[in-house]
Amino acid sequence: MIRAAAVSYVEFIRNTPFIVQLFSVVFGLPLLLNYRWPLESSAVLAIVLNFSAYLGEVIRAGIDVIAKGQREGAYSLGMTPRQTLFDVILPQAIANVYPSLTSQFIFLFLTTGLISEVGVEDLTWAGRFIADRTFRDFEVFITLTVLYMAMSYFFMGALQLIRQFAFPWWGRK
Predict the structure, then answer these.
(1) Which of 60, 94, 134, 167 is 20 to 30 A distant from 53 in Cα terms?
(2) pTM here?
């Protein structure tokens, strides 16, 4: 039952555009619940709903590639299923999919520019605001591109350092 619900959620989220999900959460959810909350909260909720499905699928794939012998070995040492999962399986799974998780994080960062479509003030919104007042669209969006690229490279470098400290054994042959 839980597995079917999780698979349905992941497939629904992965097969609908983020902008549709964003508009549904920002404009549809308040109508359904008869409650209004700040646009920023709605945007964060839409991002969390979207990217949790993608991240869950990446981690599931990482767990699936761990050899069955790892689990059997942990059980033979007397480890409980919980200890096996958290001490044996997940560290290897996360290390294996860390590059994919890094890519998803960068994609998440770059996707946040879409939240300006519902009126949330972010970097893209600020660029559009400046472009609308100066009529210098090309220069503003080139600047935005450079800023997004610089921040993406910064995040990639920081995440690479984290990987080296968190998984020092990863990548060694």
Answers:
(1) 167
(2) 0.80
pLDDT for the residue 122: 84
Looking only at Cα atoms, what is the longest distance across the chain?
69
Q: Tell me how far CA of residue 71 lies from CA of 22, 94, 134, 168, in angstroms.
A: 40, 16, 62, 22
Say which CATH number the domain at 40 has: 1.10.3720.10
DSSP conformation class of 171: T
Structural domain span for residue 38: 2-166
| Distance (Å) of CA 140 to CA 7, 55, 119 | 42, 32, 19
pLDDT score of 141 more than 80: yes
Q: 130: pLDDT confidence band, cut at 50, 70 and 90?
A: very high
